[in-house]
Amino acid sequence: MNYQDHNQILDSSISEESFSERRFGLSTGKFFLVVGLIVAILFYLSVLIFGNNSLLVLINLEEYQTFLTEDIERLKSENASLQKQYFELKELDADSGSTQRGEQP
To answer: What do you get for the CA distance between the two ends of the chain, in Å?
Structure first.
């Protein structure tokens, strides 16, 4: 076998190979299987990141929980202040009511 025969055999085997065999070294079936797996994994990751039970929803819920916790603390302090004012006014009202009836304070 001489050099030209060798090149002809090599050229004929290259022309018979599919694109995936030439480019990636995989048969067509294996190439589509790998591509399908990659697409499935990417789809699954996109659902994890952007779906109804996703990472973004979790982050938003944690931010909302922080907001609600801060709001609860603010409302508790406001409630304590208003209760203090209420009891002060109630005590003043009780004092003025007893002096109007003729009792000694």
So the answer is: 129
